[in-house]
Write a structure and sequence with these properties.
Layout: E1 4-12, H1 15-24, H2 26-31, E2 35-39, E3 53-59, H3 62-70, H4 72-81, E4 85-93
Antiparallel strand pairs: 1-3, 1-4, 2-3
Length: 100
């Protein structure tokens, strides 16, 4: 079964409120087994537009990735986050097929 991922690009407008959101989202991420693969580190943007902060979060399945987003625990974190950030978030199914 393929893993699931959150691919996130964001801009932080209210750092203190964003810090509170990061503390609050831990309940949902622990419950659904989230693992951060990239979390705001250095990046290169050879094509297209980019966000100042980029994050990739891995889940054991695509279904777990979706369930985490729709969970009551994550909804509480979203209430804390409010308008602290501008964000694009994509939930995507991983690929388990043949590789080149």
């Amino acid at each position: 079964m393929a893993k699931g991922y959150w691919m996130v690009g964001l801009k932080i407008n209210k750092p203190e409120q964003y810090a509170a959101y990061r503390a609050a989202n831990g309940d949902a991420f622990r419950k659904y087994g989230a693992k951060f693969l990239a979390r705001g580190g250095a990046f290169e943007n050879p094509f297209g537009e980019s966000w100042p902060v980029n994050t990739i979060i891995e889940f054991s399945t695509y279904e777990a990735a979706k369930a985490c987003f729709h969970s009551p625990e994550y909804r509480k974190a979203l209430d804390v986050r409010g308008d602290a950030i501008e964000i694009d978030l994509i939930i995507v199914e991983g690929y388990d097929g043949p590789q080149p």
